[in-house]
Amino acid sequence: MVVVMTRDALQSDTVRWSISYALGNRNFAGRLITVFADDPDTLPETEVPWILRRLKTINLAASGQVEESFKQIAQSLQAAA
Q: Which pLDDT tens digit goes with each residue over 36-73?
């Protein structure tokens, strides 16, 4: 499961439910890929589920790193398959 975190996603009950589901389901173990579309440092820390900051994340907002970020997403998907 790829979770794309934005300011709007943080407000979404559906996104929060999906994250909780993936974290609690054995079939998703090691398969939750968190992608920050907004700079994670600018997102309210209290609104980002703490576990997502502990897992491996990919930051699309890093300037000049978009291509590398997409490579990381593809590699993560391949590893989870």
A: 888 777 887 788 888 877 887 888 876 567 788 888 88
Residue of 53, 41, 45, 46 lying closest to 3 (CA atoms): 53
pTM: 0.75
Alpha helices in 1-81 (DSSP H): 7-10, 13-24, 50-54, 66-80
Sole residue written with tokens 């939750």: 32
Q: Which residues contact 2 (CB under 8 A, 6 or more apart)?
A: 33, 35, 73, 77
What order do you get walking across the sheet with 2-5 strand by strand?
A: 2-5, 33-36, 57-59
Distance CA 55, CA 57 (A): 6
Other beta carbons within 10 angstroms of residue 47's beta carbon come to 12
Q: Tell me the longest C-alpha to C-alpha distance in the chain.
A: 36
